[in-house]
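Treating backbone geometry as a discrete language has practical consequences that deserve illustration. Part of our work consisted of pairing the sequence of a single chain with a tokenised description of its backbone. We regard such an encoding as a compact summary of how the chain folds. The amino acid sequence and the backbone structure tokens for this protein are reproduced below.
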Amino acid sequence: AEEPAGRRGRAPEPGPGPGSPLGRVGNEGSPGGGGRRVFSPAGEFREFSRRQLRDMERLFRQYDAGKDGFIDLMELKLMMEKLGAPQTHLGLKNMIKEVDEDLDSKLSFREFLLIFRKAAAGELQEDSGLHALARLSEIDVSTEGVKGAKNFFEAKVQAIHDASRFEEEIKAEQEEKKKQAEELKQRKAAFKELQSTFKQ
């Protein structure tokens, strides 16, 4: 009984090492540091394959010049220039602002993944810097990853389209049923009226 007690509270954390954004603490750098938890991309971003997550991590690390686990304004500026879609200072700030959940004015790996989640869900405006980043960085991922990402985005768009078409069909059917019920009601009312005139 002595051995488990001695080990209590000192269990090694599972997952990637501290040098990898995949093993980073979810809210590091937050004031107070309470409620810290390890961020697991594979657990939270299940829509992406492990290969895609690795490719995104590679891309993230490539532009994290300071190796601090964040992409700041200047690193994002360099990234967008290298991707062939340079942005204004304000444009870069807006890009960060759109996914900056902890409001630290820089992108953590989790916030970086949010860009791809929003792109996949069609939540990015066509002319936004984030849309350009998601679209152009697909080219920079390894070839298999590109196909996977492109297929995923297309499948997601198709699924959204199919779901909305399905909803429209259900609504149309419901409207048709309502109309038929209303017509039946009117016919019954007209028939009763007709009956009452014969009874008099």
Observations:
- The CA atoms of residues 139 and 146 lie 6 Å apart.
- Residues 2-18, 23-34, 139-148 have pLDDT under 50 and may be disordered.
- The first strand starts at residue 70 and ends at 71.
- Residues 42-137 form a domain with the Recoverin; domain 1 fold (CATH 1.10.238.10).
